[in-house]
Amino acid sequence: MNKLQPDIKEEIYQKAISKIKNLKNEITFDLICSTLYDMFENWNFCGFYIKKKDELKISSHKSDKIPCSPINMDGACGQSFNSRKIIIVPDVNKFPGHIQCNPSTKSEITIPFLNYVLDIDSKELDDFDKIDKKYLKKIIEII
Fold it and tell me: N or C, which end of the chain is more exposed by having fewer CB within 10 Å?
């Protein structure tokens, strides 16, 4: 596995968005997770967490391991939810409050919206960038 070239990454996202839009009224979090997860071989988790009381619980996901749920608000997902900002974590081992659910996770991106957080983990260090941010925001807007 290697980090994707920017043009290839954009092409994959454009295909994913096209697939998701073609689902029309049948868009579900499960289908979004499956579509994205299956298109990016570096990813080991793609899931939605929903805020319940003072923690986040898994809503939908696709991953190579059983996800942690519930999780506290100290990790990237909780910080993203509370700040209402996208967080890109180049190295999860250097992120204060990181919640280790899968030891093969090296980097992460979190996207808050409504009462949810889209959380994506990668087996590669520094795997997420402005391209991911741009296209994942577009996917959230489709929802």
Answer: N
pLDDT tens digits, one per residue of 84-132? 999 999 999 999 888 888 999 999 999 999 999 999 999 999 999 999 9
Mention every residue, 6+ apart, whose C-beta is less than 8 A from residue 47: 33, 58, 59, 60, 61, 62, 63, 67, 118, 119, 120
Residue 93 belongs to a domain: yes
Q: Which residue has the tokens 């994959």?
A: 12
pTM for the whole thing? 0.94
**How distant is the alpha carbon of residue 7 from its chain centre?**
20
Which pair of structure tokens corresponds to residue 3?
């980090």
Q: Quote the radius of gyration of the chain (alpha carbons, Å).
A: 14
Chain centroid to CA 133 = 10
Number of domains in the chain: 1
Domain CATH number, residue 25: 3.30.450.40
Q: How far, in whole angstroms, is CA 72 from its chain's centroid?
A: 17
Q: Which domain holds residue 84?
A: 6-142
Instruction: Specify the length of the chain in residues.
Output: 143
